Each structure stands twice: as C-alpha cells, then as structure tokens.
Amino acid sequence: MNHKVMKLALSLFAVIVFPILGFAQEAESRRCWDVPPPANQQQQGIDERIDQAFKPIANCWEATVFYEAPVPEPFNLPIVLYLLIGGAVFFTLVFGFVNIRRFPLALSVVRGKYDDIEMADDPDHKEPHSMKAEVEMTDDGDIVQTIKDEGHHGEVNHFQALATAVSGTVGLGNIAGVAIAVGIGSPGATFWMIVAGLLGMSSKFVECTLGVKYRDIDKDGTVHGGPMYYLSRGLSEKGLGGLGKVLAVIFAIFCVGGSFGGGNAFQANQATTQITTILGLEGGATRTVIGIIMAILVAVVIIGGIKRIAKVTDKLVPLMAIIYILASLVIILAHFTEIPAAIGMIISGAFTPEAGVGGVAGVIIQGFRRAAFSNEAGAGSAAIAHSAVRTKYPASEGLVALLEPFIDTVIICTMTAIVIVLFNMQGDFFQYGGVGGNVMIDGQAVNGVDLTARAYNDVLPGFNAVLTVAIVLFAFSTMISWSYYGLQSWKYLFGRSAAADLSFKLLFCIFVVIGAAASLGSVLAFSDAMILAMVFPNMIGLLLLFPRVREELNRYLKAIGKS
After folding, report:
1. DSSP per-residue string spanning 197-217
2. What's this model's pTM, rounded to 2 decimal places?
3. pLDDT digits (tens, 9 = 90+) for 312-355
4. Domain interval for residue 476
C-alpha cells in the first residue's frame, strides 16, 4: 500500500510540476531571449561581447527553473523552493528533529568517539553492491577538495571529511553570496538564510547517508558515489528502476551544469571582480585575460595532474577561512552596542521588508537561494564527496554531514550578514533592493564581493588586500572541488574513459573564462538556476528513499548503544 501511495504521489508530481515548467519555458522564452544590444555595440570589448552572448542563455534558464507557483502573494515562491523547503521540513519532522536532537551525537561522531565500533565487523549487515570495508581513493591526478585528505589506506575519517568539506564549502558563497542576499533582499534575507541552513541540516543528513549506502567501487578501488547512484540503485530496489535511471541522468546533467555555473563561473567572476577592483583595472579584454590565466592554473591541476598547486592551496584555504572568521568577530565586537539593533533589523525585515526588495516573497527567495548556493543542502553535491568516508555505517557520515550547513550558513554566513548590516546601519552607504546582484554606492554599481570588501575595510583598513588573497584562494579551491563533482556526473553520462575525462575538463576551463568575462547578473542567474535545478531529481529520490535512511540510522544507533 505504501509503495502504491509513493507511486501515486510521484505521478501527481510529474503530471503537475513538469508541464508547468514546460509552459514556463515556452512563455518566458519570448522575453528572456530578447536582450537589447548596447548602444555602442561597435565599440564593445571582448568582455562585453562574451557577456552579451551568455546573458540570454542565463536569463532563459533562470526563468525556467525559478518559475513561480501560480498562487497569491506572498506565497508565489518558485516551485523549486517549495520542493526544497517542503522536503527539508518533512525530513526534519520524520526524523524527529535530527538537526537539533542529534546535534550532540554528530559532534561525538566527528570527534571519533565511535570509530572503533564503526570499524568492527558487523555480521548482521551486508555491504551493498560488493562494497568492501577497505576503500582506496582515486589516484588519477584529480584533486578532490572534500575527500583529498588521505588517511589509512587512502580513506578519510569523519573529522577529515568534515574539515575538508567545510574548507571546500566556506568560500565565495559566504563572502559574495551573502552580500548579494542582504543587498538585494534587505537584512531580512539573513533570517531566512538561517532558517534554510537549519532545515538544510536534515536534508544533508539524508542525502549523505544515501551517498555512502549506495556508493560504488571500481576494481582499482576508485570510489564513485552521489545521487546518480542512490537514485538508480535505491529506486531499483523499490521496483522503480526505470524512474531511477531517468532521475539519475537528469541529475547528472544538472550537476555538470552546476559545476560549470556555481562551482566555476561564479567563482571566476567574483575573483576577477576583486582583482580588477583592487588593481584598478577595467575595460576591453581585462576580465577575459584574467579568466584565461585562472583557466590555465585550473587546467594545470585538473588536466595536468600537477597536485603541487592544489596542495599549497589546501594549506592556505583553511588559514584564510580562519582569518576571515576572526576578522568578522573583530568587526562585530567593535560594534557591540549596535548588535541588538542589527538583529532587530534582520528579524523585522524578514516579515516587513523595506520598499524595493520584492516583498516578503522576494526576501525569502534571496535568503533560500543564497543558503542553497552556499551549503548545497538538498542539491545532492555533498553526497558525491562524502561517499568515500571510512565507515561501515552510512548514517554515521550523514550525522557528520548535517554539521556543514550549521557551520557554513548558520555561523559564517550570519557573521558576514551582520557585518554588512552594521556597515549600513543608518542606510548611509546604499539602498537595499539592488538589481542584478548590484547596489549603488556613491553612484557606482557595487556587487557582492566588492560590497563585502567595503564593509570589512570600513573597520579594518587595508583588509581588502587580505580579502582579495582569500577570495582568489577560495575561488580556486572551489573550482577544483566542483571539477570533481562535475567530472563524476560527466563520467556517469558518457562512461569512465580518458576521452570523457579530457572533454569535460576542457569545457570546464572554458567556463572559467566565460564566468570571468560575463556580468554578475548573468553569471548569478545561470549559477543559481543550475544549482537549484539539481534539487528536482535529487529531492524526489530523497522523498522516496528516506525509509532506507531510517533503517540505517536505527542500525547505527543500536550499534553505538543510543536510542
């Protein structure tokens, strides 16, 4: 009976949602492709020409993915956000507030308290799909940001997985993305961003548990995991193999797009913006040249297999993250007396936003878009990385993974938001409700990363130079990470061959250049849409497979003597 109900629910979803999306695409195509040429088209530089070619693609894809539900305001949110929020709330409830109740347990697991139990023989459990207890990591020259710390036999323990995952997650989403959310959506967007982070902890728990449960191992010991595998294999176990394969393919396509967008183009764009700002460079082919240089460095690592650069970055990124967090704390403490007022603005703005920010729905959209972009909860990308952890209990890694949205969004993103709110307490520097990711300061359009830099430099003069180094390192590190996510999805689609490997990496490097040259508005539209498009196939799979997660959680709790 339960199986029939699930099939019926899925059928209704397909019948209702996907035609709506198709209609949206058809209706919006007449508008989104209509990008008027600039008045000085003949005098355009290479940067402007690339942006002009990329903009209609980005606009159309954004219009399709973010099609709003046909309901009255303020409930006219994009359908994808209803799916993201609804799924996260459902998992939070069905797992008894796992994001809160199991938080202390997650801390114990990541500290290694139960490592001996996890590594002990488990006669009552058979590893699925010929999974061996010992897992060898890939040694093909690819740098895997979230699993590259090599422990015993090339595996990673829970702490290493969390440390490197947070290192890979903390980056421009926390720096530039938050500034965009606050600048466009007002301080109230911070509130919804925190809500999204808390709810996202439950989604991350579910998807990373499934990622470990249904992971695959090559004969040479290379780990392959993520939604592609739990969608195809997990749903096959439920008699929905055909649907699982379709969803797996759709996810893989969107994940490749996500690696080109949020994991690549956005990173290149914001790193380039900060470089051009601090060096006073502008016009012509400046951004394209910087993009080419970054693309070459990325190519050296992911194509050439030269790990030295990535290893240097690997050491510096955590250091820069610590410096960024300490700087945030210094600025917040410097404005200690104003903190209550800033928090008041965040809470009140969540429900009564300022004029020009798109109402409550607009604030919610900005908060959830930026949170999803930063912590990727519900998108499924994290499951690709976490699948190589050393454990015989998938739920143990799910518990560890739920800490990521808390650290990334609830703590670090909130710090950035408070700094920006404190910077603009009196509304003297800019008006909330910008367009295309930009706000106006002194008659000049300022976008995400530049706004954050100005806010930090206001209290810590000269810190923008340090921030520039951090931004470039964060961007490079994230691009390397997402090249792995995208490559795994690409190989799922086209096979694990050398030709497939090289073709993806070349395309990935091309998007570094596109991202650097294009405008923030175009890159943001494309990147957000690609990341959140992954939610559609992934969340359907999570909603159908959550009983498997419950089984794994109960098995793990029994093993460690918890109830």
Report:
1. HHHHHHHHHHHHHHHHHT-EE
2. 0.82
3. 556 677 777 888 889 999 999 988 899 999 999 999 888 877 65
4. 79-519+532-560
